[in-house]
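User: tokens in, sequence out, please.
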């Protein structure tokens, strides 16, 4: 069973999302991706955030688990804090950087206004609803299965 680690990163009035254009299908998702062999979910989270944004995770707490269709059957979603930074950008040496260069499955990290997040064409609506509720009421203290 494949697993993925995803990051909820909120700074001020903005949330970090990943814009995707996958074979003409445009949508948004959270930053993150596949857990590699011999890698913990937390290690994958730190690596994926670094590759997809250049940001360094300084703290992470799992808030959700989501069953998902292939290729990622289980997604582990973490509320993350990151080190101070100036901007976000995909690392050139990452898989996403390569796909962007050859114009396949475009990835672009973006800061979205929290108030606009609910209106994004988000890939997993149940996770989007959970995040919108948590922005208003607070994130769970223990992981919740969606």
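Assistant: Sequence out:
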């Amino acid at each position: 069973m494949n697993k993925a680690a995803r990051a909820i990163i909120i700074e001020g009035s903005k949330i970090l999302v990943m814009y995707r254009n996958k074979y003409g299908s445009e949508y948004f998702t959270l930053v993150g991706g596949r857990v590699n062999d011999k890698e913990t979910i937390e290690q994958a989270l730190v690596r994926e955030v670094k590759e997809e944004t250049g940001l360094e995770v300084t703290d992470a707490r799992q808030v959700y688990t989501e069953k998902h269709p292939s290729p990622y059957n289980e997604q582990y979603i973490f509320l993350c804090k990151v080190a101070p930074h100036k901007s976000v950008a995909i690392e050139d040496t990452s898989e996403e950087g390569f796909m962007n260069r050859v114009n396949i499955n475009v990835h672009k990290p973006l800061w979205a206004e929290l108030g606009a997040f609910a209106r994004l064409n988000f890939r997993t609506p149940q996770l989007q609803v959970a995040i919108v509720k948590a922005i208003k009421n607070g994130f769970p203290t223990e992981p919740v299965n969606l």
